[in-house]
Design a protein that fits this description.
Order of helices and strands: EHHEHHHEHEEHEEEEHE
Mean pLDDT: 91
Organism: Nocardia mangyaensis
Pfam families: AmiA-like (PF07313)
Number of strands: 10
Strand content: 15-25%
Protein name: DUF1460 domain-containing protein
CATH architecture of the largest domain: Orthogonal Bundle
Number of domains: 2
Distance between the termini: 38 Å
Radius of gyration: 18 Å
Keywords: Signal
CATH superfamily of the largest domain: Putative xylanase like domain
Structural class: alpha+beta
Number of helices: 8
Signal peptide: 1-23
Helix content: 25-40%
Shape: globular
Largest sheet: 8 strands, antiparallel
Low-confidence stretches: 1-23
């Protein structure tokens, strides 16, 4: 199991008007350099729309090795704030991109990462946004679920997130949440749907499995050769890469699309 640099932060509140600045946790040198690179991209982007900024930031992490289960914390182990860009999984990849898109310096990056990853800014296992659709449903809301707007073929199913079919839970200590999950079946992702996708949209691979909304996440990038799914892949290449969207759709039941809030 890889060594993860993290620090346990005990925080009551942060962010908002008059909130005190947060001291950045210690990170390894490679991660520090990568954060600075992302912040430089953010500074150079000026007033570039946020979705396009996210694409630029995501490109700087192409080739980053994949690492499974990057976060530390459970019902029995204290949650730690992990900031480690030497490896990323599909969710932490998006965490870092979202935080960097909002930040001008390392302290802001840390604060925004917490706001992206945890509900109400509390670094606790039970407050972690474990599910993709938490980004559109749990403060601080980072994106809007636009799935239903993209296709009349969109299907909505009520899911009991975190509840397995056998009655147990995926994440002990985390409550079961009833949520309406809308997805577009892959077979219904036609030219109109693809044309409605924008660079920087967050895309999740819908799963019909009980208790889960998606099994993988990444971002959409529109290219001259067609749209690609930029993601931290756990398949053969084990790195952040671009997969032609059409190829990826053949491997999943459907998609859930969230659009970053400007």
């Amino acid at each position: 199991m890889r060594i993860i640099v993290g620090i346990l932060l005990v925080l009551a509140t942060f962010l908002g008007a008059g909130a005190p600045a947060l001291a950045a946790p210690a990170v390894d040198d490679a991660t520090a350099r990568k954060i600075d690179e992302l912040l430089a991209v953010r500074a150079e982007a000026g007033d570039l729309p946020r979705a396009e900024l996210i694409e630029r930031l995501s490109a700087r992490l192409l080739g980053t090795p994949y690492g499974a289960n990057m976060l530390i914390g459970s019902a029995t182990e204290p949650e730690q704030l992990v900031i480690d860009l030497r490896r990323v999984d599909c969710f932490t990849y998006l965490d870092y991109l979202d935080a960097a898109s909002r930040s001008a310096d390392r302290d802001e990056f840390t604060a925004n990462l917490i706001a992206t990853r945890y509900a109400e800014g509390r670094v606790e296992f039970t407050q972690r946004k474990h599910f993709f659709t938490d980004w559109a449903a749990t403060p601080r809301v980072a994106a809007t679920d636009i799935t239903a707007e993209l296709s009349p073929a969109a299907v909505t199913v009520t899911k009991h997130l975190n509840a397995k079919a056998d009655g147990s839970t995926y994440l002990p200590g985390v409550p079961v949440i009833d949520r309406a999950i809308t997805h577009i079946p892959s077979a219904a992702v036609d030219g109109a749907v693809v044309g409605g996708l924008r660079t920087g949209d967050y895309l999740g691979a819908y799963t019909p499995e009980a208790g889960l909304d998606v099994t993988h996440v990444g971002i959409i990038v529109q290219t001259p050769a067609g749209p690609v799914f930029r993601n931290a892949s756990s398949l053969a290449d084990y790195q952040v890469l671009d997969t032609p969207l059409a190829d990826y759709l053949r491997t999943v039941p459907g998609i859930v699309v969230l659009r970053p809030i400007p």
